[in-house]
Write a structure and sequence with these properties.
Number of domains: 1
Structural class: alpha+beta
CATH superfamily: DD-peptidase/beta-lactamase superfamily
Helix content: 40-55%
Order of helices and strands: HHHEEHHEEHHHHHEHEHEEEHH
Strand content: 15-25%
């Protein structure tokens, strides 16, 4: 019995060198080096629409306000996107960064369509600023909070109650589906659908802009109307010395919506103060207001932000669009770009100088 117990141990000792030799290559081989891949690097190598690009490289810059353009270029940085700056008091385009993208056929508006739906519902008498709409089993919102937090169920319900024809009529009234500019040869018309979109119908059209193709110029003209009290100007982009010298505003439509605008503005201000656009916040008392938008379109993610400065003598509307495949491409990120533009303009005393020029 003792002999049998020793024999297996003896054979194990004989096989140990063989086992050790078999293991040595694995022990000696260096462990694979793991590199940390950041979100930015992943986005840069993803096929399709890139997240990063030299967005300003092909622009003609002689027509732009140099201070506004510099602030926009620096704020956009290396992201693939576009910035359009407009004077809402007269429709004059101050700067366009990435002119190719700004003059494209347009993109899905995402949640930037919601101010249009809000104005339509207010004008139709469907809601007031205090109307509560249930968005979850135990939660209801008013218009200001729904705009601030870009609540989809709220605006989907408004779209269903108004119907497709009413929603599209207000979209067209506010300039979608038509040229926003005056004699801007590169501009395109975008599109408003002739029938409810198959994906989600009028409800999704009212929350994400499904079926609509909107250009940056159209969104800028639309929100300029919110900022100035109801005048939809033709956007003008003076390019010659004569055009700059003889510039005069051109009114497309004077809309009777002044009584509705405080309710919409309150929601857009709330978005900046405590909602989806918090990254655009500059400081107390500045009252920049805006609306974010995030969705996917044409094989890429979109991040929209449209904003206006709300105080007397500070006349600017910013429209920002960023594109790409990375998850960083979102409306709040675009709002952060606007915040950097505003801070730069404040640092350069841009608004103080504009106020002096206009007598504001």
């Amino acid at each position: 019995m003792r002999k049998h117990r020793i024999l297996p141990r003896f054979y194990f000792l004989l096989s140990y060198p063989l086992l050790l030799a078999a293991c040595l290559p694995a022990i000696a081989a260096p462990a694979p080096v793991r590199t940390r891949v950041t979100a930015h690097k992943r986005a840069a190598t993803t096929a399709g629409v890139p997240t990063f690009a030299d967005s300003a490289k092909d622009d003609v810059t002689t027509n732009d306000d140099p201070l506004v353009r510099q602030a926009a270029v620096m704020a956009l940085g290396r992201y693939n996107g576009s910035v359009v700056a407009i004077d809402p008091s007269n429709g004059r385009i101050l700067s366009i960064v990435n002119q190719k993208l700004a003059f494209s056929t347009g993109f899905k508006p995402c949640s930037t369509i919601k101010p249009v739906i809000a104005m339509a519902a207010l004008q139709e008498g469907l809601i007031t600023r205090d109307t509560l709409i249930r968005v979850r089993r135990r939660k209801s919102l008013n218009l200001s909070e729904a705009l601030a937090h870009s609540n989809n169920p709220f605006f989907e319900e408004l779209g269903r109650r108004m119907g497709f024809d009413v929603v599209t009529s207000y979209a067209r009234l506010l300039g979608l589906g038509e040229l926003a500019g005056y004699e801007i040869s590169e501009e395109q018309t975008g599109a408003v659908p002739g029938e409810p979109p198959k994906r989600g119908g009028v409800a999704r059209m009212s929350s994400f802009g499904e079926g609509i193709q909107m250009t940056l110029l159209q969104l800028g003209a639309l929100v300029s109307t919110v900022a100035n009290g109801g005048t939809l100007y033709y956007l003008q982009y003076p390019r010659t010395a004569e055009e700059k010298e003889n510039f005069e505003p051109r009114i497309k439509r004077a809309l009777q919506i002044a009584a509705l605008l405080p309710d919409v503005r309150d929601g857009m201000l709330a978005a900046v103060l405590h909602g989806t656009a918090r990254r655009s916040f500059v400081s107390d008392g500045e009252e920049e207001s805006g609306k974010t938008g995030t969705c996917s379109d044409a094989g890429s993610r979109l991040g929209w932000f449209v904003s206006f400065a709300g105080q007397e003598g500070r006349k600017i509307v910013l429209v920002i669009l960023v594109r790409g495949h990375s998850r960083i491409v979102r409306g709040p990120m675009a709002a952060g770009i606007a915040g950097r533009i505003y801070r730069r303009l404040h640092a350069e005393n841009y608004f103080a100088e504009q106020s002096i020029k206009t007598g504001g």
